[in-house]
């Protein structure tokens, strides 16, 4: 047989070896993470629930999902072990960490427009005095079209 005919099979076997090797590394890392769990650490389950570890057993973990509420989960159901800062940020909403330079990012894009704050357009309708100063030409057009009528008024001809 020629080596060129065996080359696709060799490449296929090599690719399968590399894929299984990376999967085994991920499984080993997950097992190490689960074995490093200690009481008091924050975890996220594979279902997305955040809880605090109370007790660690061989195959199970006792989690406190709310103050005074405990549940037993399998160790395999732990998706991630979180550090204290990340757990407090997610669960309690503590935002102690800012960017390195202390900048705060605004929630809207108003700071990107480049206009000063005092140059905002007033979208609120003015007071009643402003309505009385309409141009006479505008009033004539409204009267001609019948737009000056209030509700309930009809043309009486």
- Name the helicity range: 25-40%
Q: CA-to-CA gap between the ends?
A: 107 Å
Number of beta strands: 5
Rg over alpha carbons? 35 Å
Spatial arrangement of strands, main beta sheet = 4-3-2-1-5
Q: Return residue spans where pLDDT drops below 50 for at least 5 consecutive residues.
A: none
Strand content: 15-25%
The rough form would be described as extended
Order of helices and strands: HEEEEEHHH
The biggest beta sheet, please?
5 strands, antiparallel
Structural class category: alpha+beta
Our count of helices gives 4
Layout of helices and strands:
Layout: H1 3-35, E1 42-45, E2 50-56, E3 60-66, E4 69-74, E5 78-82, H2 84-91, H3 128-132, H4 136-145
Antiparallel strand pairs: 1-2, 1-5, 2-3, 3-4
How would you characterize the overall build of this protein?
This protein is of the alpha+beta class. The chain contains four helices and five strands. The protein has a five-stranded antiparallel beta sheet.
Key terms:
157 residues, alpha+beta, five-stranded antiparallel beta sheet, 5 strands
What's the gist of this structure?
This protein has 157 residues and is of the alpha+beta class. It contains four helices and five strands.
